[in-house]
Write a structure and sequence with these properties.
Elements (H helix, E strand, L loop, with lengths): L1 H28 L3 H7 L5 H27 L4 H33 L2 H7 L6 H4 L7 H35 L7 E6 L6 E7 L9 E9 L4 E6 L2 E21 L6 E8 L4 E8 L11 H15 L5 E4 L6 H5 L5 E11 L5 E3 L2 E3 L2 E7 L2 E4 L10 E10 L6 E8 L8 E9 H7 L1 E7 L7 E12 L2 H12 L6 E11 L12 E7 L2 E4 L10 E10 L6 E8 L5 E8 L10 E8 L8 E13 L33 E3 L28 E3 L8 H32 L8 E10 L4 E10 L12 E8 L8 E2 L10 E9 L9 E8 L9 E8 L9 E9 L2
Antiparallel strand pairs: 1-4, 2-3, 3-5, 4-5, 5-6, 5-7, 6-8, 9-14, 9-18, 10-11, 12-13, 12-15, 15-16, 17-18, 18-26, 19-22, 19-26, 20-21, 20-23, 23-24, 25-26, 27-28, 29-30, 29-36, 30-33, 31-32, 31-34, 34-35, 35-36
């Protein structure tokens, strides 16, 4: 037995030693890049001299600037300012390099080593039970990655490069050109896969993949003749793959759609001469352009589509099917942070950005206020109503530096709006100490009934908003004329509906182009608006043909659809035709989305929860027992809350207050005498009355009040969402001056200001209603050990001490927060 035990100990010791060695090697990999560089020794003196010259040349402008300031007798504050900015920039780069090294190590090592080295950065299948491991898929990706690299290279050259070139022209940065594109040898990694089996069509397969790319790509480009490049490119997000329609032939589904539901997180390093852009504030130009192009290519409403079978029409795969339209009215904000502070006094210049997928709108800037009123409308086409989110970000405009400061952000689950049709709500801003934003959100269902257009168009058209959605699928063109006799054209199509224009990609050197692209428009008034189709030549900019369609003509067609229609082009060749499909959908407001509450993973829930359980019955204030003795048994309290009358023991012993006026005059005199007696004994029986009312309300001994909360944990966003609904039966209702209560929250064990949340104050009531939403960022692994402290404070008077009235502690580990939990919690009095 002793030998066996010692052998097991040796085996365990060896396994622990092996595991610790792997962990230590991985931790070395995660060491910041700057530290790893210092440990490397140059192979020769020439290399060290070259490196020294590069370092000296890089710091020469800074040294010369400091010398010039001293030579011209500038203040020491300028030198300190430059040194501070340089130190902050170096620290920012070190932190970003550390994040990149961590992500790169996660892509290289297998899941076991990642878990041993960094417990906080676990794959999605560890936290989310509905996600499955995908190591088999990662092995396949590693083998096919060279072929993927060639395909992605062609996509970047054909689709991404033209978009970046056009976007940079707005910043006076012309001449953008990709010179080298290599994705390296490290493929992106799939952290988990989830396949949906509820609320999906029987004719499709929907799955989400948690992907992370932190490879060794090498991308070189030039801007205005300056050479530069991108290295350490990183991207992570939730990628959705839809395979439809299902067919009875191999490969069993006719097409595939690939897209991001929301914009992925992107980070990279710049190299070469344009490294000067890699500084906080300045590098935002190139970073913003690249993120915009990724969104224009892979983020909804944009999709990467493939047709895999000849028996399936490309229209079935490539034409979009929106779930509906979301209209957002950004009304106002309040209690924003004061960013422009001078001697502790200041304001902000706030503006808001609203985003759904790759669609983005910005409000105007309101100057010198922390309570801006925008009254701004915007509309979004929603393709995945059960999964997409609406993001709001508020910034403080800084016209001096152009580096706008964040005033907070908020997230709204679109499905929570689609279920109720319309919602008016105040949302608490995240990542800031204070601030709320007022939103009015309306969900529009899509129908093909022209009668509905006449019913709802007048209301929206008066505000200049949309009343219909138009889908234009540009299939192909035939027999286009040549813009020049020497070569064939490079045709593309510009589609204009209302005040908005969209264009397809260009097809090179052909008179019979095939585009197979769908464009979506929001139309204000289909009865008066027209649709314009222009075929243009990219080389010369000349027009190859055009056609005009009146949208009112679509209202008389079956299902308001024009399917695969060849249109003769004007100002073109005699045989030139453009083949298109057009669909018109009427926007019907306030129609809830159909389906049950089992939704695709959005990581959020409706801020207005389902009907909560009824509160404990409050004391009866409408029924008083009147005995033959004129002295009453129970005094009448001041509680005005609605209640259910308590049942009487005998009909002859109970008289309802509502029927007193119908009694005889002798009974009136008796009640008058009883009232006089009540007024005499009221002061001495206040405390007894309060206790008796609470016992009638069903509260256990030692509990003075109750608070109604809704708790929910968003696994995708890693947010704990708390809705404080109301508090019932607070003490002090019998006093002549009722309390002014508010609720304060702490997420224990943290009691700092970052953990504190509090509601607005409700004046003069013992039954306050708040309906305010708060959020905490919590890792899934930490959630079971956290506790929520709920306190009710009396803020009576401007300079009052704000005494604690009652409180409770909610142990989060005792509740299943994967679904919204609405519950009453007992509050105990303060000691």
């Amino acid at each position: 037995m002793t030998d066996t035990k010692s052998t097991d100990d040796v085996t365990i010791s060896r396994e622990m030693s092996s595991s610790s060695s792997k962990t230590s090697s991985l931790e070395k990999e995660i060491v910041p890049v700057n530290r790893s560089i210092k440990k490397k020794k140059p192979n020769s003196v020439s290399k060290s001299l070259v490196g020294l010259c590069k370092i000296a040349a890089k710091h020469l402008p800074l040294v010369f600037g400091v010398y010039a300031m001293g030579y011209f007798n500038f203040s020491i504050a300028w030198i300190l300012g430059i040194v501070g900015i340089t130190a902050a920039t170096d620290q920012w780069r070190k932190e970003r390099n550390y994040r990149m090294s961590t992500a790169r190590a996660s892509a290289i090592y297998d899941d076991k080593d990642v878990i041993m080295a960094r417990v906080s950065d676990l794959p999605s299948w560890v936290f989310f039970p509905d996600f499955d491991r995908a190591e088999w898929l990662n092995k396949i990706l590693k083998q096919v990655w060279p072929n993927v690299g060639h395909y992605v290279r062609n996509i970047i050259l054909e689709s991404v490069q033209p978009g970046i070139r056009e976007s940079l022209k707005a910043y006076k940065l012309g001449g953008f050109k990709m010179e080298k594109i290599s994705l390296g040898t490290m493929p992106f990694r799939v952290g988990g896969v989830k396949v949906y089996d509820k609320n999906v069509s029987r004719n499709e397969i929907v799955m989400d993949m948690d992907i992370c790319y932190a490879g060794d790509c090498d991308i070189r480009f030039s801007v205005k003749g300056l050479k530069g490049g991108i290295k350490d490119f990183q991207m992570s997000g939730m990628l959705r793959v839809v395979m439809k329609p299902l067919i009875s032939q191999i490969p069993l589904f006719g097409g595939i759609q690939i897209f991001f539901l929301n914009s992925p997180s992107v980070d990279f390093n710049l190299i070469g001469v344009v490294d000067v852009l890699d500084m906080p504030g300045l590098n935002g130009i190139l970073r913003r352009v690249i993120i915009e192009q990724i969104g224009a290519f892979l983020v909804l409403p944009n999709k990467l589509t493939f047709t895999l079978s000849d028996v399936v029409s490309p229209i079935a795969v490539k034409i979009p099917e929106p779930s509906g339209v979301l209209r957002v009215r950004v009304v106002e904000a309040k209690q924003l942070m004061k960013m422009d502070r001078v001697l502790g006094i200041g304001k902000s210049d706030p503006y808001a950005i609203v985003t759904v997928g790759s669609q983005e709108f910005r409000t105007k800037t309101i100057y010198n206020t922390v309570n801006p009123k925008w009254d701004f409308y915007c509309e979004f086409v929603v393709h995945e109503g059960r999964s997409q989110l609406c993001f709001l970000r508020i910034f403080d405009r800084d016209e001096t530096t152009g580096d706008d400061d964040s005033l907070g952000k908020a997230t709204v689950d679109i499905y929570s709006i689609a279920k109720v049709g319309k919602k008016d709500m105040w949302v608490t801003l995240e990542d800031v100490k204070s601030g709320m934003i007022h939103l009015e959100l309306t969900w529009f269902s899509l129908m093909d009934d022209p009668v509905m257009l006449k019913m709802h168009a007048a209301e929206t058209q008066s505000l200049g908003l949309s009343s219909a959605l138009l889908i234009v699928y540009v299939d192909s063109a035939t027999s286009l004329p040549s813009a020049r006799t020497s070569s064939k054209p490079d045709p593309y199509v510009i589609v204009t509906a209302g005040n908005r224009s969209e264009q397809t990609s260009a097809r090179m050197r052909t008179c019979d182009p095939t585009w197979e692209q769908a464009l979506v428009f929001l139309v204000c008034n289909p009865e008066s608006d027209d649709l314009y189709l222009k075929v243009m030549d990219q080389k010369t900019g000349g027009e190859l043909g055009m056609e005009k369609i009146t949208l009112v003509s679509l209202l008389t067609l079956p299902e308001m659809e024009l399917s695969h229609q060849p249109l003769s082009l004007k100002n073109s060749g005699p045989e030139s035709k453009l083949i298109v499909s057009i669909r018109l959908k009427v926007m019907v407001p306030g129609q809830p989305m159909e389906g049950d509450d089992t939704i695709l993973d959005t990581g959020d829930f409706a801020t207005e929860p389902p009907s909560p359980p009824p509160p404990p019955p409050p004391p009866s204030a409408e029924t008083v027992k009147v005995k033959p003795d004129p002295k009453p048994d129970v005094p009448v309290g001041n509680d005005t809350q609605n209640s259910t009358p308590a049942p009487s023991a005998a009909a002859s012993d109970t008289v309802s207050l509502s029927g007193i006026s119908e009694r005889t005059s002798s009974l009136d005199k008796s009640m008058s005498s009883s009232t006089n007696t009540l007024s005499v004994t009221k002061t001495s029986l206040d405390r007894e009355s309060s206790i008796r009312r609470r016992q009638k309300g069903g509260l256990p001994p030692g509990v003075v009040s109750q608070v109604q909360l809704t708790l929910r944990y968003s696994s995708q966003r890693q947010r704990l969402i708390i809705v404080v609904h109301k508090v019932s039966q607070l003490p002090g209702g019998d006093q002549p001056d009722p309390p002014d209560p508010y609720v304060k929250l702490y997420l224990l064990p943290d009691r700092s200001t970052n953990s504190k949340r509090k509601t607005d104050i409700v004046k003069d009531t013992v039954n306050p209603v708040f309906d305010e939403t708060f959020e905490y960022t919590v890792a899934p692994i930490d959630l079971p050990a956290r506790e929520l402290e709920v306190s009710v404070i009396n803020r009576k008077g401007r300079f009052a001490r704000s005494p604690l009235m009652c409180s409770c502690v909610v142990i989060l580990g005792h509740h299943d927060l994967s679904q919204a939990v609405t519950q009453w919690f007992d509050l105990k009095p303060s000691e």
